[in-house]
Amino acid sequence: MSAIALEVREVVKTFDTDSGTINAVDGVSFTVDHGEFVALVGPSGSGKTTMLSIMAALLTPTSGQILIDGQDLAQMSETARVGLRREKIGFTFQSNNLIPFLTAAENVEFMLRLNGKLDKAGRMRSEELLARLGLADRLNNLPNQMSGGQQQRVAIARALIHAPTVVLADEPTASLDTERAFQVVKTFSALIHENQRAGVMVTHDLRMVQYVDRVLQMRDGKLIKVFDKREEIMALAKGE
In sequence order, which residues have a C-beta less than 8 Å from that of residue 96 and are 6 or more positions away? Predict the structure, then answer.
C-alpha cells in the first residue's frame, strides 16, 4: 500500500459572481500520508473550507485532481464517487449535522449501517470511541439533550467509526471551550496516528496545531507556506 492516502494535484475552483470570476482555490497541490495529521489554516476567505469540501467530494474542482488511495475522483461516475465518499471519507462539519431522532450511539453507528457493517463488534467500537471522547454517560442521549460541544464530539466519533482512509474536519473545536478543545484535538490526533488515517483539519485556532504533523497555510486561494518542522509548528501554536 502506498504511503500516500490523499493527493491534491493543481486544484483550481472558480466561482462566477456579479463582479467577475473568483479563484476560491488557485493551483493547490499537496499530499497527506496514512497516519499523518495536517492542519489547513488561513484567514477567512483564504479558500481552506472550499478546499476541504473538494477533498470530501462535496464540490467538484474546476480543474486539477483529487486522489484517495490512488483513485481519481474526477474519473469516477457519480455513483462510484458517492460510494467512495461513504466508505473512504469521514467528515465533520462546523454544524454537526446529527440526526435529531437518533441517540449519540445510534448517530455514530449510522455510518456503519450505511456501509452494511453494523454488528455487535461495531456497536462495541462505537461505545468505546464515544467513551474515549468523554461521552460514556451520553450514549443514549438525543442531540437536543446534549451541549453543542458534546454534539460535536459525537460528530467526530461518527467521522472515524467506519475506518475511512481520509478524515476531514472543518473547525472541529468551534463550539468547544478551550480545555475541551485541547482534549478533543489531542484525542483526534491520537486516533488518526494509531489507526493510520490521513487527517486534515481546518482551524482558525492556531493553538490547536501543536497536535498536527504539518501546517499548510493558505491565502487568496493559494498554498503559500508549509510548516513541517516541529519547532516551527510549536512556535506557530504559541503565537511566536
Answer: 143, 148, 151, 152, 154, 155
- Sequence-distant (≥ 6) Cβ neighbours of residue 19 within 8 angstroms: none
**Phi and psi, residue 118, nearest 5°:** -85, 110
Cβ contact 107:152 at 8 Å: no
Residue for cell digits 503559500?
A: 224
∠ CA 210-97-109 to the nearest 5 degrees? 90
Determine the Cα–Cα distance for residues 93 and 69; give it in Å rounded to an integer.
Answer: 23
Name the packing angle between helices 178-194 and 148-160 (round to 10°). Answer: 10
Strand ranges for 85-165 from DSSP E: 89-92
Quote the pTM value: 0.91
What is the longest distance spanned by two Cα atoms in the chain?
55
Residues 166-208: tens digit of each pLDDT: 999 998 887 788 888 898 899 889 989 999 999 999 998 999 9
**Residues 6 or more apart from 157 whose CB is under 8 A from it?**
108, 126, 129, 130, 133, 135
Q: What span, in angstroms and rounded, lies between the C-alpha atoms of 42 and 58?
A: 21
Helix (H) or strand (E) holding 166: strand 166-170
DSSP-derived 3-state class of residue 141: coil
- Structural domains of the chain, with CATH: 4-237 (3.40.50.300)
